[in-house]
């Protein structure tokens, strides 16, 4: 049975996670202005519907891009080898 190993946090993954958070903040800023007509963090930003929509869409795009990059980096990490697989005796070596 394989033990599940936690993915390692690398600088690239952390970098992409920061971009993901920035995308969430941008999304929340645009959505708050569209829903309530109020700014969230910055005074007078966004100042209109067009800016709010652009910030909202930019936040969604940034979140999707960052999440895809995080998944790509995690897939590139080496997978742990099961005990039986290390010497080639995993039980189905001759079955084809």
Short description:
By secondary structure, this protein is mostly helical.
Task: Give me some keywords for this one.
96 residues; 56% helix; mainly alpha
What would your notes on this structure say?
It is a single chain. The protein has about 100 residues and is an all-alpha fold. It has a domain at about 25-75. It is about 55% helix and about 0% strand. The chain has 2 helices and no strands. Helix 1 packs antiparallel against helix 2 (about 50-75). The longest helix is centred in the middle third of the chain and has 28 residues, at about 50-75. The chain is rod-shaped. The chain starts with 10 loop residues before the first helix and ends in a 20-residue tail after the last helix. The mean pLDDT is about 85.
- The average pLDDT value, as a whole number, equals 86
| Number of β-strand runs | 0
Distance between the termini: 22 Å
Flag low-confidence runs.
Answer: none
Tertiary shape: rod-shaped
Largest sheet: none
Q: Secondary-structure element sequence? A: HH
- Radius of gyration (CA) equals 22 Å
Summarize the amount of helix as a percent range. Answer: 55-70%
What class would the helix/strand composition place it in?
Answer: mainly alpha
> Beta-strand percentage?
under 5%
- Tally of DSSP helical segments: 2
Secondary structure blueprint with pairings:
Blueprint: H1 11-36, H2 49-76
Helix pairs in contact: 1-2
